[in-house]
Design brief:
About 35% of the residues lie in helices and about 25% in strands. The protein is of the alpha+beta class. It has two domains: about 120 residues, Gcn5-related N-acetyltransferase (GNAT) (Aminopeptidase, 3-Layer(aba) Sandwich), CATH 3.40.630; about 160 residues, Gcn5-related N-acetyltransferase (GNAT) (Aminopeptidase, 3-Layer(aba) Sandwich).
Length: about 300
């Protein structure tokens, strides 16, 4: 019998057994991503020794299931049984990758709908770390001008500066309170819980200071041995070029062991899409709604 549970920080190591796959690039293959959005999408999971999958709420009041991790056929059978018992459609949410390729070879009862607003932006780590070539000319100019104007320093996240990191992020979210967004609230709550957790979650972070004061922060975690996922990146509105600086410095100083960096989606926000495209993604990772059309 399928019974769903709400993700907790203590589930981290159990989820990791299913997530860590070098053939995947999606941020959905990442515990922190799932945890951040659990309240917004009412993410709940089912897991046994063979499979892990999630059930999430949709805007129209329905449900969608993640493509099962682990044994796909076994997981899909459980989803079909659960949906039949509860009289709901076994619609699936997934991204392009190994599991998707395996799924579409066997299951022909789904209509595949690309969800452009949710495509992940994947970059070569070396591109973001060096900003070499004509395509990054303007980025280098902005950083150069900022460096001439301000005395900035870079620091990796550690116990000594963790509270300053949290204080800055809280102020950043507070300053956005007039445009309150449930997603931002979920981000901030998850960030505090993750940084204060003793579960041993594998993450890395960093901050930028100007004259000693924090003006930008970032935090992410690995999807697998090749791909690192950026979950948080915030900068003071008075120092917007700090976004470019912390993006470059984090990739350069902390992520040399990874080949790719996933900077997640743009949510259909025009300004965010323009900014992410300006960094020239190596891969625009497709995401799909898989609508069930019958046996």
């Amino acid at each position: 019998m399928v019974e769903f549970k709400t993700p907790k920080l203590t589930d981290y190591k159990k989820f990791a057994e299913f997530f860590f796959d070098d053939g995947e690039f999606s941020c959905e293959m990442n515990f922190i991503s799932i945890y951040i959005w659990k309240a917004i999408y009412e993410n709940k999971y089912y897991m046994d020794e063979k499979t892990l999958f999630f059930k999430s709420s949709t805007e129209d009041g329905g449900y969608v299931f993640s493509l099962p991790y682990g044994d796909i056929d076994y997981g899909m059978n459980l989803i079909f049984e659960y949906c039949k018992e509860n009289k709901i459609a076994p619609n699936i949410w997934t991204s392009k990758g190994k599991r998707f390729d395996e799924f579409i070879k066997k299951y022909h009862c789904y209509k595949i709908i690309p969800e452009r607003d949710n495509f992940d932006y994947i970059y070569k780590r070396e591109d973001l770390a060096t900003l070499q070539g004509k395509k990054y000319h303007s980025k280098r100019n902005h950083i150069s001008a900022f460096t001439k104007k301000y005395n900035w320093t870079y620091e990796p996240l550690c116990e000594e500066n963790k509270q300053e990191f949290l204080n800055f992020s809280e102020k950043w979210y507070f300053d956005k309170a007039d445009a309150f967004d449930e997603g931002l609230a979920a981000e901030q709550k998850a960030l505090k819980e993750i940084l204060n957790s003793e579960v041993g979650i594998n993450y890395k972070g960093a901050l930028i200071r100007v004259d000693g004061s924090v003006v930008a922060v970032t935090l992410g975690s690995p999807i697998n041995s090749k791909v690192f996922d950026i979950h948080f990146e915030k900068a003071d509105a008075n120092f917007l070029t700090a976004y470019s600086i912390i993006n470059r410095e984090f990739a350069l100083n902390e992520l040399s062991e990874y080949e790719y960096i996933n900077r997640e989606d743009d949510l259909g926000i025009e300004g965010l899409r323009k900014a992410k495209l300006s960094y020239k993604p190596e891969i625009l990772l497709e995401k799909y709604s898989m609508i069930y059309s019958g046996e």
